[in-house]
Amino acid sequence: MLAPDRRTACRAIAALLATGALPRAAHAALTVEIIAPASLGDSLDQVARALAEGLNQMNGAVSAAVTNAPGQGGVVGLERFVNTPKTKPLLLATSLGTLGASILARRAITLDDTAAVQRVCGEHLVLLVPEQSPLQTLDDLAAALRRDPSRTLIAGRELGSASHMLCLSLARAYQLGPRALRYTAIDEPGEMFRALMSGAISVVAGGVPAYAQQLKGGSVRALAISAGARVDGFNAPTFRESGVDLELVDWRGLAAPNTMDPSLVGQIAEAVSLLLETPAWANVLGRRHWLPLRLKREAYAAFLETERDRVAALYRDAGLI
Predict the structure, then answer these.
(1) Calpha distance 207→161 (Å, rounded)
(2) Could you give the angle at the alpha carbon of 205 between the alpha carbons of 52 and 123, nearest 5°?
(3) How confident is the model at residue 87 (pLDDT cuts 50, 70, 90)?
(4) Given CA atoms 248, 253, 258, 263 in this order, what sign does their dihedral have?
(5) Among 127, 150, 136, residue whose Cα is nearest residue 204
(6) Were 89 and a residue from 32, 35, 276, 290 both cysteine, which residue would form a disulfide, CB within 3.0 to 4.6 Å?
(7) C-alpha–C-alpha distance, residues 134 and 177, integer Å
(8) Short-list 130, 99, 76, 77, CA closest to 248
(9) Residue 7 has pLDDT above 50, yes or no
(10) Which residues lie closer than 8 Å to 283 by C-beta, 6 or more apart?
């Protein structure tokens, strides 16, 4: 059975927050627009809408609405965010994939042209195969890629996405040549799952939330999960258990324009911090298989610098930049 479609996922998040006992605000002094550089129902869009819904239901000073600006793994939305005249307060929902796509695109505008607000959550990634696949371990996958790359196709999200980075990191760990990794981008998790089960692709690289239902149902199994330790509820070895020193989280955060008044950024950051401390938000994290990865402004900004250097080094090693 396929995971709920993207619209269903958005409605589910709203319902979770509505039952989380958040006090509703009678009036909000500040309304912000959150740009989600992704399609409606995409994982990053779901995070943006969960944040907006939570802010709207709090008795606080900030309310929010979400606008979608999909394209090129987040590059279109990032450029729109930076170039849009700031007639109202804007935020940008960001992720590891947004950072990766912007570096890979080598455009003039990058996340360096924004101001960090807060890291809010994240998700583990997983390599999936059909239950009957002859690939049992990461070593099996690496051997198959060495033997005949044309027979082992791996699918994930856009080039520059977290799933793409996971595959590049795996190839580097096994010292596979650049031509040994056959990676194809498929935008929608449901389409990717159907391609996997039909045999059109051999392996799926994706976020745990998108495939949690299939993992628990037994139609697929995990070669490895990118967590530091085994995750409750999933029969999935970590990469380290499989002999590969690899841990990766697709983090999600919020950015503000570089030109936004620092006091306004602080007001928004404080409202988001209060939301992330609520039982309602904890409920959303648990139900959506998201990780609690709170990181406040200064620490998040420092983290982004480290991530930028790490991701750029990965792409250079792969010959992509």
Answers:
(1) 11
(2) 35
(3) confident
(4) negative
(5) 127
(6) 32
(7) 23
(8) 99
(9) yes
(10) 16, 17, 19, 20
Percent of the chain having pLDDT more than 90? 84
Instruction: Give residue 28's pLDDT.
Output: 46
Nearest to 298 by CA among 274, 262, 247: 262
CA–CA separation, 1 and 206 (whole Å): 17
Give the tens place of pLDDT for each residue, 148-180: 999 999 999 999 999 999 999 999 999 998 789
> In the prediction, which pLDDT does 1 show?
41
For residue 122, give the H/E element and its range. strand 114-130
Q: Are residues 153 and 173 in the same domain?
A: yes
Verify that 221 and 313 share a domain, yes or no. no
Statement to judge: residues 151 and 195 lie in one domain: yes
Measure the CA angle with vertex 78, ends 295 and 46; round to 5°.
60
Does 221 map to a domain? Answer: yes
**Of 68, 91, 76, 75, whose CA–CA distance to 260 is shortest?**
91
**What tens digit of pLDDT does each residue of 225-267 get?**
999 999 998 989 999 999 999 999 999 999 999 999 999 999 9
Q: Which two tokens stand for residue 149?
A: 């790359």
CATH, residue 142:
3.40.190.10
116 and 36 assigned to the same domain: yes
Residue ranges making up the domain that contains 87: 6-123+250-317
Q: How many domains does the chain have?
A: 2
Q: Which of 97, 121, 111, 69 is nearest to 272 (CA)?
A: 121
Task: Tell whether 14 and 110 lie within a shared domain.
Answer: yes
Asked if 103 and 187 sit in the same domain, the reply is no
What's the burial of 262, exposed, middle or buried (CB within 10 Å: 0-12/13-18/19+)?
A: exposed
Q: At what angle are helices 279-288 and 6-18 packed, to 10 degrees?
A: 150
Structure tokens at 192: 């990717």
Looking at the DSSP bridge assignments, the partners of residue 35 are: 67, 92
pTM of the model: 0.90
